[in-house]
Structure formats: structure tokens, C-alpha cells
UniProtKB/TrEMBL annotation:
Belongs to the glycosyl hydrolase 28 family. This is Rhamnogalacturonase A/B/Epimerase-like pectate lyase domain-containing protein. Keywords: Glycosidase, Hydrolase. Residues 65-111 form the Rhamnogalacturonase A/B/Epimerase-like pectate lyase domain. Transmembrane segments: none annotated. InterPro entries: GH28_Enzymes (IPR051801), Glyco_hydro_28 (IPR000743), Pectin_lyas_fold (IPR012334), Pectin_lyase_fold/virulence (IPR011050), RHGA/B-epi-like_pectate_lyase (IPR024535). GO terms for biological process: carbohydrate metabolic process. PANTHER family: PECTIN LYASE-LIKE SUPERFAMILY PROTEIN, PECTIN LYASE-RELATED. GO terms for molecular function: polygalacturonase activity.
Length: 488
């Protein structure tokens, strides 16, 4: 994927991908024995014992968790089995395309485990990973350098259930297998103020590249669900995320200081933001200086009664740029695309493009705030003023809305370049007294009903921008791969 950063190499890269796929087909690298030959791929796609999956890369070397003592009874700890299996498969490196660990049907109780490079973790549709509630199986690691502290408490944080750092070519997938964070006890401790260490996430990959997370169901995470950070070339596809709508901080997918990311075809029910785009917190994020940019979000369905469908910030101190969101359905959510920042954040949120957004029962369609004032400590910079500019919304429909827009910039440093076009908002039977509230913002509008505030004057038939050229990650294709399960 990394070579796709240069568009001039796209044709050559596509040729290479075709040759690689042809090589895999010729060698029939689909089963437990990588020399096994399949004469008819379509026939074997339906053949008993062959399980299909989609991957950026197919794997030559495969093993089952049960080969390493895995027990799917929902009671036996499988933490050691997972780590032993992954460490064993790591010996193959990138040879023949790398390795795959298969998790068969069953309920596998486990603590945290670390992934390796050139590796696929594959969950059968009837496989469930149960996150242990034994805190001894959750190692504590240092705070993220761009945050300076944990999100729930000062100091360290519990490592995520599935974790990796400094990796290349990592796939976490399945045919809709389940990862259950068993988060209730964590939520209870958070609400009671009993946490001294920040809660774990379900999946976190750091300082990594060429990542695919796809075709899984994630439920009841202790906190955030999917958190790629300081990483690049990422595909997150076909994920279902479910959490109680009042569960604390159960964000769906949080790309954080990441470059070249594609999130698509996901269904999220959350107690917090469905997608939260981040890049570090106040002075720590400013110093780390790693933005999130080149992000595409498409074909997303979100239910989040207390939060946003897509949030930009509030931790955005490394910067957020070039975010493209399209074909989004929001149901019973607090706000559509919400920009959250404050004095002390610094950096910028700019070049944001949103189109074809359908919203049903919303508190706000548009919400921006420069007063989201949480800080990691008392050392934040009072002169670090964020820049919010070139924000584009178009082709949107909403119904049963309490307030059309709440746009609050920063006194003396307004949010600029806001464009809203071809938007129809149906208000609720009892809307707010003021359906638009705009302060310290500048922009234009066109074809918006009800008509926006004076800070967004009508400008003819203006159509807000949405880039036509694709991002590099959009050219990456997934291949049809197969695993041969010997238990069938």
C-alpha cells in the first residue's frame, strides 16, 4: 500500500497486484498445506472444509488456535494459546505471503494478546472472543505520547484486547465472527469514579502500516472499539459495532494521527461518537505533530442518541485535513458531523467534505463548537488557537430535527469557509425557538431550508466542493482467499 502514496506508480502497482494474485492462484495458497493445489477455485469455494475470506493479501502458512491448546468453552483462559500461536506463526514472516491464525467455532475467553507482521487473525462466524474480566490479564502500558496521560485517569492505560505496534501487513477479519468486550464492569467502575487506569479498547494498532480490519461484529467494548493510531494505509470495512446507547465512551472507530484511511460499509450503535477523528490532545498533540489526513468514510449507518455520527476532535492538536464523508445514514443521533475544539488545542481542522447524508430524528444537523474545553492538565497553551476552515456540506436531507444548526466559533478567531448547499431539514413538531444559532463563523449557503443564519448568506446556486480525484487508499482491492479448516 505504501507505494500508492505516489499516484504515478498506480498503474505499475496494479500490474504487480495482478501478478501477485496470479502467483497465489497458481500455487493455490489457500489451505493448511501451502503446496496443496486447487484445480477449480469456483468449485472449491463451495467445497466442504474451505472457508472463503477477503484480504489485501492471502496467506500461505495457516494454523488453528486449537493446535496451540485453545479451548472454546467460554471459561478457560486462552491468552497463552493466542500468544503462543502468534509467536509460532511469526517465524514465517512474509514468506509466501505470511501466516493466518484461524479461530474456530466456540467462545474463547482471553486477555490481551499482541499481533505480528504479515499476519491474519480470522474468526469463524460462530467464534466469539470474550474479553476477560480478570485485570491481571490486562498489562498496563504507557500513555499515548500525543495525549500525555490516560483518557480516564492520569498515568498509564490497560493495553487493548487485540494490540500491535510497529507492524506491517496486518489483517483482522472473519466471516462476521464476534469480539465481546464484556464492558459492563468497566462502565460501572467509570461511572463510580473507581478507575485509576484508563480502560482498554478492543482493537488498537500503533505505528503500523498496511492494515485491514473487516467483517467482524464488536460488542460491549470497555471503551473505544477500533483505534488505529500513528498508522497509515488502513482499510476498515464491513464492521458491525454494538453497545448500549448510554454506555460511556464506547466510540465506534477512532482514526487517530493516521494517514490514508478508508472506512466503509459499517453499522454502528454507540454510546458515543460512531466515528471520532483525532490527532492528539493540547500541548502533547502539538508537540507530537502527527495529523490525521486523507480519510474517506462512506456507506455508514449510525445510531447514537447522545453523540455525533462523525466527530472531528475534540483531540485534534496534530491537525485534521482532507476528510471525505459520503452516503451516510443517521438514525436517532444527537448530531451529524460535529467539530469539537477549544483554545489550547492549536492546529487545524480544514478541507472537510460531506455529501449525501440522510438523517432521521436529530437534535442538531450541524454543530461546531470552539468551547469544548477539557484539557489533560494545567500546562496547556492559552495562545494555541485552532484554525477551522473550508468546511463543506452538500446534498443532505433530515427529518424530525430539533435545531438545524448550532455553530459557535472562537471570539476573535472565527471558523471560516463554511459552505452548506442543497440541504432540506424537516423540523420536529416542537423545535427550538431559534432553529439556527451562529456566532463567530463565516461562510455561505445555497438551497438550504430552513434558511440559515445571516453569517451564512445565500450565494446564488453555489454547489459546495467535494473532490473528484480519489485518495490512494481507494485504489486498493481485496482478493478472494481461502482457509482449509481440518475440523470439518
Amino acid at each position: 500500500m505504501e507505494s500508492l502514496k505516489n499516484p504515478r506508480k498506480l498503474h505499475a502497482v496494479n500490474v504487480v497486484l495482478i501478478l501477485v494474485l496470479a502467483f497465489f492462484s497458481a500455487k493455490s495458497v489457500y489451505g493448511r498445506n501451502y503446496q496443496h493445489r486447487l484445480k477449480n477455485r469456483h468449485h472449491h469455494h463451495h467445497m466442504r472444509g474451505y472457508i472463503p475470506y477477503s484480504g489485501v493479501r492471502c496467506r500461505a502458512h495457516t494454523a488453528s488456535l486449537t493446535d496451540f491448546g485453545g479451548v472454546g468453552d467460554g471459561k478457560t483462559s486462552n491468552t497463552k494459546a493466542f500468544q503462543t500461536a502468534i509467536d509460532h506463526l511469526a517465524q514465517y514472516g512474509s514468506h509466501g505471503g505470511g501466516s493466518l491464525l484461524y479461530v474456530p467455532p466456540g467462545k474463547y475467553l482471553t486477555g490481551s494478546f499482541n499481533l505480528t507482521s504479515h499476519f491474519t487473525l480470522f474468526l469463524h462466524r460462530n467464534a466469539v472472543l470474550l474479553a476477560t474480566q480478570d485485570e491481571n490479564e490486562w498489562p498496563v502500558i504507557e500513555p499515548l505520547p500525543s495525549y500525555g496521560r490516560g483518557r480516564d485517569a492520569d498515568g498509564g492505560r490497560y493495553i487493548s484486547l487485540i494490540f500491535g505496534t510497529n507492524l506491517t501487513d496486518v489483517i483482522i477479519t472473519g466471516n462476521n465472527g464476534t469480539i465481546d468486550g464484556q464492558g459492563q464492569s468497566w462502565w460501572d467502575k467509570f461511572r463510580k469514579g473507581q478507575l485509576k487506569i484508563t480502560r482498554p479498547y478492543l482493537i488498537e494498532l500503533m505505528f503500523s502500516k498496511n492494515i485491514q480490519i473487516s467483517n467482524l461484529t464488536l460488542i460491549n467494548s470497555p471503551s473505544w472499539n477500533v483505534h488505529p493510531i500513528y498508522s497509515s494505509n488502513i482499510i476498515i470495512q464491513g464492521i458491525t459495532i454494538l453497545a448500549p446507547t448510554r454506555s460511556p465512551n464506547t466510540d465506534g472507530i477512532n482514526p487517530d494521527s493516521c494517514i490514508n484511511t478508508r472506512i466503509e460499509d459499517c453499522y454502528i450503535v454507540s454510546g458515543d461518537d460512531c466515528i471520532a477523528v483525532k490527532s492528539g490532545w493540547d500541548q502533547y498533540g502539538i508537540a507530537f505533530a502527527m495529523p490525521t489526513r486523507q480519510l474517506v468514510i462512506r456507506r455508514l449507518t449510525c445510531i447514537s442518541p447522545t453523540s455525533a455520527v462523525i466527530a472531528l476532535g475534540s483531540e485534534m492538536s496534530g491537525g485534521i485535513q482532507d476528510v471525505r464523508a459520503e452516503d451516510i445514514l443517521a438514525i436517532d443521533s444527537e448530531s451529524g458531523v460535529r467539530i469539537k475544539t477549544a483554545v489550547g488545542r492549536g492546529a487545524y481542522v480544514k478541507d472537510i467534505y460531506v455529501r449525501r447524508f440522510t438523517m432521521k430524528t436529530m437534535k442538531w444537523v450541524f454543530w461546531m463548537t470552539g468551547n469544548y474545553g477539557s484539557h489533560p492538565d494545567d500546562k496547556w497553551d492559552r495562545y494555541a488557537i485552532p484554525i477551522i476552515q473550508n468546511i463543506n456540506y452538500r446534498d443532505m436531507v433530515a427529518e424530525n430535527v430539533t435545531m438545524a444548526g448550532r455553530l459557535e466559533g472562537i471570539t476573535g478567531d472565527p471558523f471560516t469557509g463554511i459552505c452548506i448547499s442543497n440541504v432540506t431539514i424537516g423540523m420536529a413538531n416542537v423545535p427550538k425557538k431559534y432553529i439556527w444559532n451562529c456566532t463567530n463563523v463565516e461562510g455561505i449557503s445555497s438551497g438550504v431550508t430552513p434558511q440559515p443564519c445571516g453569517a451564512l448568506p445565500v450565494q446564488g446556486e453555489k454547489v459546495c466542493d467535494f473532490p473528484q480525484e480519489k485518495l490512494p487508499i481507494e485504489f486498493v482491492k481485496l482478493h478472494s482467499c481461502f482457509y482449509r479448516a481440518n475440523y470439518m
